[in-house]
Amino acid sequence: MSMIRDLRAVVRPSRVSLRKESSAYDTTRDPGSVTAVVDCAVYRDGRRLTTEGPLNPQEAMRLVRRDGGFVWIGLHEPTEAEFAGIAREFGLHPLAVEDAVQAHQRPKLERYDDSLFTVFKTIHYLDHDRLTSSSEVVETGEVMCFTGRDFFITVRHGGQGSLRALRHRLQEDPELLAKGPSAVLHAIADHVVDGYIAVADAVQDDIDEVETEVFSPGRKGTPRGTDAGRIYQLKREVLEFKRAVSPLLRPMQLLSERPMRLIDPEIQKYFRDVADHVARVQEQVIGFDELLNSILQANLAQASVAQNEDMRKITSWAAIIAVPTMVCGVYGMNFEHMPETDWKYGYPLVLSVTVAICLGIHRTLKRNGWL
Prior knowledge:
Elements: H1 7-11, E1 37-44, E2 47-48, H2 57-67, E3 70-76, H3 80-90, H4 94-102, E4 108-111, E5 115-125, E6 138-148, E7 151-157, H5 164-171, H6 174-177, H7 181-215, H8 228-245, H9 249-257, H10 265-331, H11 346-367
Parallel strand pairs: 3-7
Antiparallel strand pairs: 1-2, 1-3, 4-5, 5-6, 6-7
Helix pairs in contact: 3-4, 7-8, 7-10, 8-10, 9-10, 10-11
């Protein structure tokens, strides 16, 4: 429909690298800054208000209460002291504030009197030339969102998951931003889940590579079973991925199915699409886990079979060597009356019989696949 036209295009991350521009809403935190607030802006009728200088949260909220609109505040890893003033200004629940400051929360959706508290786990794929037993495949971060009637607060933890580019794209669509804080919540949810889809595709390539190497003929001189460490490391990274994706499905379903005062009805239906994408990624991750279990078991079985083959070869050669050992042991006892000891053809005959028996054993074992 017209009021939310091109919604998907707005919230989808661009595949073209964004130039770094100096702007009033650059959300890159200044290392020398003494505040966790990386951006604070007031939006009215979908457009960002232009001010003479940077706004602080208290000033922004006064503008909203006086003239309407909503304020969007972005923070990065705030301390309890840095967040206390904002929490008081917007009446945030103490339990939600504690979770936002301490981080390390599972994805969830909690409703308080006048706000929604949503936790997202962000996932970033770490590029590597070759997967090893110590390679890190995914890196996680967190984005906590406080959604109110006239405010939206994001608290980000970790080096990944910057919302700068997303804020830029939303500001280019005033019609969407005019729907209020719920439109921003949907955009962030969709942005995070799109990241899951990209990471799932990259992890699938890693799993395909490991699977191919495990089931391909071993290279000469390559120790068998050396892929077990790589498989186990990849399985651990998939488990980390699973912890980010699986708990998020229920919150997205609630946002798409249950009417909520703080979620615009026109925006709510789009959470259904986000929930579908989360379900799809969840199925992929569960499939990754099961597939890695099978690959690990197959790799261990191959190592066991290889060891059995080595033991059979050792046993076969031991059986062959036992024949001349026995003959030499008998004729080395130095008894005076032994057959063929005084016969001039005795030595060549015993040697020929010994060789013939050894060749017969070798042929039999080779025919049975032991050599």
